[in-house]
UniProtKB/TrEMBL annotation:
GO biological process: signal transduction
One Pfam family in the UniProt entry: Tcp11
Recorded family membership: Belongs to the TCP11 family.
Protein name: T-complex protein 11-like protein 2
Source organism per UniProt: Galemys pyrenaicus
Biased composition (Low complexity): 17-26, 36-52
Region ranges (Disordered): 1-59
Phylogenetic classification of the source organism: Eukaryota, Metazoa, Chordata, Craniata, Vertebrata
UniProt-listed InterPro entries: Tcp11
Amino acid sequence: MPFNGEKQCMGEDQPSDSDSSQFSESMASLSDCECSRQSFTSDSSSKSSSPTSPSPPRVLTYDEVMAVAGNLLDLNLAHEIAVNENFEVKQTPIPENSLFGQVKHIVHQAFWDLLESELNAEPPRYEYAIKLFEEIREILLSFLINGGNRLRDQICEVLDTDLIRQQAEHSAVDIQGLANYIISTMGKLCAPMRDDDIRELKVTGNIVEVLRQIFHVLDLMKLDMVNFTIRSIRPHLQHQLVDYERNKFQEILEETPSALKHTTEWIKESLDEELLSLSETALTPGAENTTKQSVSPTVVLNNSYLKLLQWDCQKKVFPETLGTDEVRLQELAEKLNQLKMIACLSLITNNMVGAIMEGQPELADRLKRISAVLLEGMNKKTFNLKEALNSIGVQTCVEVNKTLKERGLLTLNAEIQANLLGQFSSVQEEGNPIWSLIDKRIQLYMKSVLCLPRPQKCMPPVPGGLAVIQQELEVLGSQYANIVNLNKQVYGPFYANILRKLLFGEEASEKVDTSSSTN
């Protein structure tokens, strides 16, 4: 399953080549350097996918806002289920000292106290107990899949509330017997992980506490059933994900035409850089149109995706088309930032004491682990990077000196140690040459990953200086490529239309709109 930290082939879990071919067809006219301007006006997405609209923005009604919110929720949920193999629904604990937690405790305790007083009365009253059995019956029936008719009939027969009411009128209700049947039935329906909970229910003596714990375990079983359903539909959702997400986003776009505003800005930034680069190499007069036709949409998009690895979410809004993967990309960028720092420290160490470390792979591994541990959480605002770098420098000197002593050699003198600590501390400074070098090489590696058709099966060679983080870099590169490739498949038609509009303005979009209305 992609995106879960393993290098897997995208073709196994993601949509087939027929899906990716739609992206290729949408971008074909943009990638052909010799195509005419008219080739950019072919229809690759619907009319509503235009990045901007000449008409003034309209005010959405409450129902329209709720419809858009519902579509966004559906899109995000479907995407998360499909791409995150570890996605599951969990019970959210309520803090006991919170107002909601205190109110909930008081209300629940009052109900169970009332139930206990009813059952202990002379003669016993069963009004609330019958309501509980009716609710338990419905929950148990909800766990049954098609074909469980025999057990369904049995549950309805034993927990027949009309019969229990008749028995209550004659004080003949066997509360403990009903509870034992419920526990036994729960044992047949629950997941193996709930067997211990079922055993605890069987040894609980107080009938009120038994009923209370029955509802607790039933709540856990509901979550188990939801997560089982999620796992069951995941393969089907993965197969239909591209079409489903694209259609859902199209519905959002029809309600809110400005839904591609930040996506357009994101692509425009890379397009402007590419046009500037091409114009600098074009020496012939009147080469502007030729420059526009020479733009490679794949290069522009890949450069846009690379910007996401250094995206400042505090200053810029994430592109709308990548909202479903925003958290994943941020986590990936944070891990990449940590690996970048580890590579910088390793390069400094090798430059200063490389002769000592030669033939000592254990030492290099120890230094890498020390750096990784001390740099954990380095992307948090509260993290003291300067202190962490100083600690890593001290530990590096200790480990190197220890190795030297074991080999019967002189330890590092004070000057070398001070120089090493100083270079470690300077890595965090803006414009540090070592940081810039490693950053450029990692960007080059990630760019080469995006250029491979199947990055999971054939990763590109790692540039010099990155060997120490090669394994981790390949894993992150594989995850990154999976995110990008799926995003291209889903939103390729929208990107093609945005590029067409940015390159040739309103005229191209008007032709697309006319073509859409006549078809």
